[in-house]
Amino acid sequence: MRIQKLTKETKQNLLEDLLKRSPNSYGEYEASVQAILDKVKEEKDRAVFAFTKQFDQADIDATNILVSEEEIEEAYGKVDASLLEVVRRALQNIKDYHAKQKINSWFDSRPDGTILGQKVTPLQRVGVYVPGGKAAYPSSVLMNVMPAKVAGVDEIIMTTPPGKDGKVNPTTLVAAKEAGVDKVYKAGGAQAIAALAYGTESIPKVDKIVGPGNIYVALAKKAVYGHVSIDSIAGPSEILVLADETANPRFVAADLLSQAEHDELASAILVTTSEKLAQEVSLEVDNFLKELSRAEIIEKSLDNYGYILVAETMEDAIDAANEIASEHLEIQTAAPFEVMTKIRNAGAIFIGEYASEPLGDYFAGPNHILPTNGTAKFFSPLSVDDFIKKSSIISYSKEALFKVHNDIETFAKAERLTAHANSVHVRFENEEA
């Protein structure tokens, strides 16, 4: 891996480099994505079936687009029993963690008859998009579905592209069933996002779309935002390890590579105060590449977006970490909890040398749907909050309104909104202020 001194210039170059990976940088795909969205909006099922045949080579129609109970039962027969047990244990951890995020409606009443409050209501219907292809990501199914279940969403539907045989990956199906998905539809890509956003004869319109996907899925979600809600525009995976001379170079190298193997756009960065650790980690990376199955992808990822930055002080290293605002941030230092208190921007923070990033991906419980491309400066991980909406509650007695009606009328008149002022005035027009 390339080793550089952390300077203002190298940090700025790195930030500019990382931003090139954002889905917002791929505008050349937007026209084709919009064409798919428009076609589905106009032709509904007919367009979804045609695009599924074109992109997935699968013959899907109104009779088989919805996954049947028989197909789910068949999927259970194809999933290893030990994996199923792991899925169930992970599911419980994820459920328990998100249960702590729940908030309740509240009301504050006063003696004069004023009642103010907040009513919390779960979304009615949510769509979860799950990528297909050769890879199956049951962990993403659990992470997207469980916070919605905990929030109390009435109906959770899932779309995922079928294989050429018209079947859905069995591991994906089993994870969906275990997590409590109500219906699974065989549709992928931008056409699935369009179906969820606009509704078709087979696939109902949802209130919110969540879940990762390729550039077409990301741009489709961006295009339908406002018509429905979405979780985020997900970019490539990234990890930043913050380490000092006490860190284990083998652990650090292994953790960096755990994200670099995702794809060629993934980013893996080490920021350290130790030149010695930097050299040792680089050597360990080379050794691991000789034995890892996705070495070719990892090498391209590291060539493109892999960095080891050597900082003068830990304060400089922390400043760089906050500026980069990584999706995953590991702290492997002598006093990791102290360092953690100085971190402002990160999607998920892993503290100590035994909090390896895959722990969060699969099992610990916190959500692994995280902000990328520096958006951890203002976005949060997927949570129960993403599946609720809040309504303000206002109730005043006549006595309570009488006390403030002159103030309200003065405010309204200052804005030249006389109908606003009149709306309050008429309630007391026969009474003295």
UniProtKB/TrEMBL annotation:
<dbReference type="InterPro" id="IPR022695">
    <property type="entry name" value="Histidinol_DH_monofunct"/>
</dbReference>
<feature type="binding site">
    <location>
        <position position="328"/>
    </location>
    <ligand>
        <name>substrate</name>
    </ligand>
</feature>
<feature type="binding site">
    <location>
        <position position="259"/>
    </location>
    <ligand>
        <name>substrate</name>
    </ligand>
</feature>
<feature type="binding site">
    <location>
        <position position="361"/>
    </location>
    <ligand>
        <name>substrate</name>
    </ligand>
</feature>
<comment type="function">
    <text>Catalyzes the sequential NAD-dependent oxidations of L-histidinol to L-histidinaldehyde and then to L-histidine.</text>
</comment>
<feature type="binding site">
    <location>
        <position position="129"/>
    </location>
    <ligand>
        <name>NAD(+)</name>
    </ligand>
</feature>
<dbReference type="Pfam" id="PF00815">
    <property type="entry name" value="Histidinol_dh"/>
</dbReference>
<keyword id="KW-0479">Metal-binding</keyword>
<feature type="active site" description="Proton acceptor">
    <location>
        <position position="328"/>
    </location>
</feature>
<feature type="binding site">
    <location>
        <position position="191"/>
    </location>
    <ligand>
        <name>NAD(+)</name>
    </ligand>
</feature>
<dbReference type="InterPro" id="IPR012131">
    <property type="entry name" value="Hstdl_DH"/>
</dbReference>
<feature type="binding site">
    <location>
        <position position="237"/>
    </location>
    <ligand>
        <name>substrate</name>
    </ligand>
</feature>
<feature type="active site" description="Proton acceptor">
    <location>
        <position position="327"/>
    </location>
</feature>
<keyword id="KW-0560">Oxidoreductase</keyword>
<keyword id="KW-0368">Histidine biosynthesis</keyword>
<feature type="binding site">
    <location>
        <position position="259"/>
    </location>
    <ligand>
        <name>Zn(2+)</name>
    </ligand>
</feature>
<feature type="binding site">
    <location>
        <position position="361"/>
    </location>
    <ligand>
        <name>Zn(2+)</name>
    </ligand>
</feature>
<keyword id="KW-0862">Zinc</keyword>
<feature type="binding site">
    <location>
        <position position="420"/>
    </location>
    <ligand>
        <name>substrate</name>
    </ligand>
</feature>
<feature type="binding site">
    <location>
        <position position="415"/>
    </location>
    <ligand>
        <name>substrate</name>
    </ligand>
</feature>
<comment type="pathway">
    <text>Amino-acid biosynthesis; L-histidine biosynthesis; L-histidine from 5-phospho-alpha-D-ribose 1-diphosphate: step 9/9.</text>
</comment>
<keyword id="KW-0520">NAD</keyword>
<feature type="binding site">
    <location>
        <position position="420"/>
    </location>
    <ligand>
        <name>Zn(2+)</name>
    </ligand>
</feature>
<feature type="binding site">
    <location>
        <position position="214"/>
    </location>
    <ligand>
        <name>NAD(+)</name>
    </ligand>
</feature>
<keyword id="KW-0028">Amino-acid biosynthesis</keyword>
<comment type="similarity">
    <text>Belongs to the histidinol dehydrogenase family.</text>
</comment>
<dbReference type="InterPro" id="IPR016161">
    <property type="entry name" value="Ald_DH/histidinol_DH"/>
</dbReference>
<dbReference type="GO" id="GO:0004399">
    <property type="term" value="F:histidinol dehydrogenase activity"/>
</dbReference>
<protein>
    <recommendedName>
        <fullName>Histidinol dehydrogenase</fullName>
        <ecNumber>1.1.1.23</ecNumber>
    </recommendedName>
</protein>
<dbReference type="InterPro" id="IPR001692">
    <property type="entry name" value="Histidinol_DH_CS"/>
</dbReference>
<feature type="binding site">
    <location>
        <position position="262"/>
    </location>
    <ligand>
        <name>Zn(2+)</name>
    </ligand>
</feature>
<feature type="binding site">
    <location>
        <position position="262"/>
    </location>
    <ligand>
        <name>substrate</name>
    </ligand>
</feature>
